[in-house]
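In keeping with the milestone schedule agreed at the kick-off meeting, the structural modelling team has produced records for the first pair of proteins. Each record is given below as a sequence line and a structure-token line. The laboratory manager (R.T.) confirmed that both were archived under the project's standard naming scheme.
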Amino acid sequence: MDAAKLCEALMMLAFGASWPMNLIKTIRMKNPIGKSFVFLWLILLGYLAGLASKIIMREFFSPAAILIYLNTLMVATDLTLSLYYLMRVKRQEKQV
């Protein structure tokens, strides 16, 4: 592995370190009020662009690509859960 790929993998590892904690917080709180959905969509778009880059370069299983896959999955899961919990909170507010 060359130095550039190592640096890329380390960057993805550093970015990805925070997503499990964010996902756990979303699951525990079950209330996404105050969460920036625009931010999550932009992050997801960035990871999808990174995935497209890895596919175009045929680097399907490079360390950075694997980390991009995992990070994309975590961000998409967090966004999905946040939208679900937001709809749930709004439904509960209507019933009150």
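The second protein of the pair:
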Amino acid sequence: MNKQREPSDLVMEMGRNFREASSRFQWSHVFLVLAIIAVLAVAVWLLVRYVHFRETRGFRNPRRLFKELCAAHGLPRGRRKLLLRLATAHQIALPAALFLEPDRFDVAQLPPSWQSQQVALEELRDAIFGRRLAET
């Protein structure tokens, strides 16, 4: 009783489980696809904003840059205040620039009232630049 089926019978049997009701257009499927696309778009937008924030966060905040440079060099609060006073004495708008200019720590370039700070400025310069500049 093993009857050989014709290929057309197999196709008909496979299609028997498809119902006309399920082949109709359903808005719920469209909304599901749109929701998935919207979620993906929002995720990409958030990722782009996060990456942009991470790339620009230290460059537009001079105060934060100064604070991070001081922390990276292990400078205590008293030394930070001395750096800020030094930047004011040199009329530097961005105190973080002192981390690039070791000559600014030279007392000869400052008013006479800074003479008493010579040792502190030399120690601060050495802490930032890692060596005594006079020895190099």
